[in-house]
Specification:
Elements: E1 2-6, H1 11-18, H2 20-23, E2 28-32, H3 42-51, E3 56-59, H4 66-69, H5 73-93, E4 97-103, H6 126-141, E5 146-150, E6 153-154, H7 161-171, E7 174-178, E8 182-183, E9 186-187, H8 188-201, E10 206-209, E11 216-217, H9 218-229, E12 235-239, H10 259-265, H11 272-284
Parallel strand pairs: 1-2, 1-3, 3-4, 4-5, 5-10, 6-9, 7-12
Antiparallel strand pairs: 8-11
Protein name: dTDP-4-dehydrorhamnose reductase
Catalytic activity: dTDP-beta-L-rhamnose + NADP(+) = dTDP-4-dehydro-beta-L-rhamnose + NADPH + H(+)
GO molecular function, one term: dTDP-4-dehydrorhamnose reductase activity
Length: 285
């Protein structure tokens, strides 16, 4: 099987590259980012998929700058909505399949119980709206498509909340962090391992949710990040959302129910604090 990983230089793409040997010798991997393939170019996508006989796409590419998306709607729509549809249609034509990574931002964030895959969607931002449109295009374009919604992604790669809080904790004596937004952090390594297990099991079409186990707030997340990173001299203050206005509206509650992915694929999901410890140990190396 020939597998294409798009967005290979991002957090999830890099983690997938590190565990490729877990997939087995029967898989051959192709890696692209914008330099190798512009996924917003339908003809380029079709040619690449056909020329390299791609059987499965793991689409990690996306416009993820949530606040910038409010001002860059056209580019966000191209990357998050149109491009996934091009990828799905191209691999469907070859008789292949696609795993498309999506987000908790497709929900309103106004609930108080974990969102199931069939919970009503109601995105509150350009980012969430374009990601939902991308899901819909993928499902329409590829019969066997798998959508994985995740949230609060972090890793040793690129820019993310964990690395930012460690940097600010070392630079400042005091830090204010929002305490009334609740969700579940996701270690990109754990998501990559779950995708590997899904591929080896055999993909079952549909929408799935994946984050690490447990829930927390951004404030509590930061406290644990500082504890595990050995940061002792930075006071972390809890803030209300209205104390920290942003261009894009954040979900107040975006916990995802993972029952379906665990039951379908037999996946054992780590607790978020254990996952964070592993990531921070890697950052120390």
């Amino acid at each position: 099987m020939n597998i294409l990983i798009t967005g290979c230089n991002g957090q999830l793409g890099n983690e997938l590259r590190l565990i490729e040997d877990r997939f087995g010798e029967e898989y051959t991997f192709f890696h692209t980012d914008i330099e190798e393939l512009d996924i917003t170019d339908r003809e380029a996508v079709n040619a690449y998929i056909q020329d390299n006989a791609i059987d499965l796409i793991i689409n990690c590419a996306a416009f993820t700058a949530v606040d910038r998306a409010e001002e860059a709607q056209e580019l966000c729509e191209k990357l998050n909505s149109a491009a996934p549809g091009y990828l799905a249609a191209a691999v469907e034509e070859r008789g292949g399949n696609i795993i498309h990574v999506s987000t908790d931002y497709v929900f309103s964030g106004e609930g108080c119980v974990p969102y199931r895959e069939d919970s009503p969607t109601a995105p509150q931002s350009v980012y969430g709206t374009t990601k939902l449109a991308g899901e819909e295009r993928v499902i329409r374009s590829c019969a066997g498509a798998v959508i994985i919604r995740t949230a609060w992604l972090y890793s040793p790669f690129g820019n993310n909340f964990v690395k930012t809080m460690i940097r600010l904790g070392k630079e400042r004596e005091e830090l204010g962090v929002v305490a009334d937004q609740i969700g579940s952090p996701t270690y990109a390594h754990d998501l990559a391992m779950a995708i590997c297990q899904m591929v080896r099991h055999g993909l079952v079409p549909g929408v799935y949710h994946f984050t690490d186990e447990g829930t927390t707030s951004w404030y509590d997340f930061t406290r644990v990040i500082h504890r595990e990173a050995g940061i002792r001299n930075c006071r972390v203050r809890p803030l209300h959302t209205e104390d920290y206005p942003t261009p894009a509206k954040r979900p107040h509650y975006s916990v995802l129910d993972k029952t379906k992915i665990k039951d379908t694929y037999g996946i054992d999901i780590p607790w978020w604090e254990d996952a964070l410890k592993d990531c921070i140990e890697r950052l120390k190396d």
